[in-house]
């Protein structure tokens, strides 16, 4: 027959589990914030690199948009 755990022991286990969840959530939130920051930095570097490449290409704004398939004509319509 299964042994009944006392209410106090069960409450203690619940508190311990809640503390562990809280600690883990804080670690998770910190990791997500770090990841988000790193992704933002990567995106900024990519944008800078793209702008430099476009400026270096010698192409006009219209030529670049036409190449990318988002011509000004479509936006004006």
What does this protein structure show overall?
The chain is mainly alpha-helical. The protein has three helices and no strands. It has helices spanning 7-57, 61-68, 72-76. The longest helix is centred in the middle third of the chain and has 51 residues, at 7-57. The protein is rod-shaped and about 80 Å long. The mean pLDDT is 88.
Give a short summary of the structure.
This protein has 77 residues and is an all-alpha fold. Helices cover 83% and strands 0% of the residues.
Contiguous uncertain segments of 5+ residues: none
Using the alpha-carbon principal axes, give the shape: rod-shaped
Record field, number of beta strands: 0
**What is the beta-strand fraction?**
under 5%
Tally the helices: 3
Question: What is the H/E order?
Answer: HHH
Evaluate the radius of gyration: 28 Å
**Average residue pLDDT:** 88
Helicity range:
over 70%
Biggest sheet architecture: none
Distance between the termini: 79 Å
Q: How would you classify the helix and strand content by structural class?
A: mainly alpha
């Amino acid at each position: 027959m299964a042994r009944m755990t006392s209410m106090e022991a069960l409450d203690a286990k619940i508190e311990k589990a809640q503390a562990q969840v809280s600690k883990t959530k804080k670690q998770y939130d910190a990791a997500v914030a770090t990841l988000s920051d790193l992704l933002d930095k990567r995106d900024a570097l990519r944008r800078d690199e793209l702008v430099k490449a476009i400026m270096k290409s010698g192409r006009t704004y219209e030529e670049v948009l036409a190449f990318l398939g988002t011509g000004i004509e479509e936006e004006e319509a």
